[in-house]
Amino acid sequence: MTRLSDLPEWERQHHLDKIRELPDFGKTPFVAGPPLKQRRVAIITTAGLHVRNDRPFDPGAADYRVIPGDTPPADLVMSHTSVNFDRSGFQEDVNVVFPLARLRELEAESVVGSVSDYHYAFMGAAPILALEPKARELAALLKKDGVDAVLLSPV
Known about the structure:
Blueprint: H1 9-20, E1 40-45, E2 49-51, E3 64-68, E4 76-78, H2 88-92, H3 100-108, E5 114-115, E6 118-122, H4 132-144, E7 149-153
Parallel strand pairs: 1-5, 1-6, 1-7
Antiparallel strand pairs: 2-4, 3-6
């Protein structure tokens, strides 16, 4: 992982400016819920993944793709557009960015209650402020599906 101090000044400043642009969401109260072994879990990744026959992500895309839980790993494509993004881990093992097989193992061991039938992917290089409308839309889908825990896979 690269440290800010290792970047050229112009790129370091670019990343710091992005942090200052983040909205203030105020305090979010902690909400207790049922034990993990009773929760329904979905994966949300920012790896720019999509099913092979679905549309790829455009640069700066702020929408998401639905990934059915029965999608074979060979049918997942990464269309993340950042030139700084190393795809070699994904190419070796999809679970690096989309750990569905690991999540299913946890379900089989009764560590989690159930795994959602649908999972979701964003493209990580999206403008942060543009994501909120789609994030709210996705939250409604998760709620409708009974998902009460999300495994975030930020890439």
